[in-house]
Amino acid sequence: MISVEEAQKIILAEIRRIGTERVPLGPSLGRTLAEEIASPLDHPPWDTSAMDGYAVRGSDTAGASPGAPRTLKIIEEIPAGTMPQKTVQPGEASKIMTGAPLPEGADAVVKVEETERSGDQVRIFEAAEEGDFIRKKGEAVRTGDLILKKGIRIRPADIAMMASIGRSVVPVYQQPRVAILSTGDELADLDEPRGPNKILNSNGYGLAAQVIEAGGVPIVLGIAKDTPGDLRAKLKQGLHADFILASGGVSMGDYDFVRDVLAELGAEMKFWKVAMKPGQPLAFGVIAGKPAFGLPGNPVSAMVSFEQFVRPALLKTAGRDDLLRPILHATLEEEVRKHPGKRHFMRAIVSVQNGEYRVRTTGDQDSHILLSLVKANALMILSEEGDRVQAGEKVAVQLLSDLLVAGN
Ligand code: AMP
Ligand code: MG
User: Fold this and answer.
1) Under 8 Å between Cβ of 407 and 348
2) What is the domain class of 27-43+144-173 according to CATH?
3) CB of 201 closer than 6 A to ligand 1?
4) Which ligand is nearest to the CA of 255?
5) Is the CB of 253 under 6 A from ligand 1?
6) Looking at the CA of 247, which ligand is closest?
7) Which of 119, 192, 216, 237 holds its CA 20 to 30 A away from the CA of 404?
8) What pLDDT digit, counting tens, does each position of 235-294 carry?
9) Dist CA 5 CA 291 (whole Å)
């Protein structure tokens, strides 16, 4: 049996980058940037005012105070979106709005709150230093500056940044297509009539959702019977995709044929079991360059195994640099027992109390109990060694969600 790290290493070594495509800026949200982006322009494009007020020559306002104001002549009004026409000469000022270009001659802006206008005269109550309330040309970004790195997941701020430099089309990695097959004679799909001997196919839906969250496109192949013939026929359909995922049928049972059928279809099987809980059975192989995973059938095992092995592989193929979920360290609130020799991924709730991360399990950790995954916002990772961890110890926690909820 190999360790979680060994399994991840073997899998990631087989993963190749997918191709790239160009998409409009808005829909690039959440995609992975395929080229670095440099700015083709200066921003702001000119010196601009950071305030509503008066563009002045700072020297004209020297010594100004409420008791001893300086009076200047207003020569122009410059709303945002208008280029100034006049040069500010000694004794003059131009009224200016936030974001408007600074007129020639002016070297400072006085806030409107520090002034009083009467007709074409303005009284200035505060001395302005050269550069006051001016945003310099190119201060936010300069022509040629690298603004976004290749391999990042595009976020709203990145979209705004690209818009600010005129990028309307964005190079991104393609989204890997992932064929998903559920296996088991006992399975029925949601919309089909079912007898009392059936259970509902939850893995097909859960895995498809995980694929979407990891930036892939699920191709749902439905349910295969536990026969080599049906498995072969359905898995063959998956060969059109970039990745193949099957769940169930990879253990030691009499009807567990997934590994054999993958091998028969030409998969070079790389390993079968990983020292972890939940999720020990995990078949991984490569068919015609395509990664194929036989995930365990139990619903929690399938999803936890996806998190540790399939998600990083999908991110790598789609060009991402950060393949693993963030890990933080939290204080364990209760003693937990474990099996020696296996890495445990326990469904858990992380909360913040008095500025410190704390973690507790969500209850029964049996691998068919989905509700304890539903309640979790994290997986608590316990190392292979030992059979228990004491309350008060620090443990590693893998965040499954961006939200740190107080727990329920
Ligand atoms: P297996 O590995 O095929 O023996 O499956 C292990 C357990 O997971 C069995 O109790 C199965 O009924 C259950 N299981 C397998 N596939 C699914 C699925 N697609 N949805 C829900 N439960 C499943
Ligand atoms: Mg089965």
Assistant:
1) no
2) alpha beta
3) yes
4) 2
5) yes
6) 1
7) 216
8) 999 999 999 999 999 998 998 999 999 999 999 999 889 999 999 999 999 998 899 999
9) 18
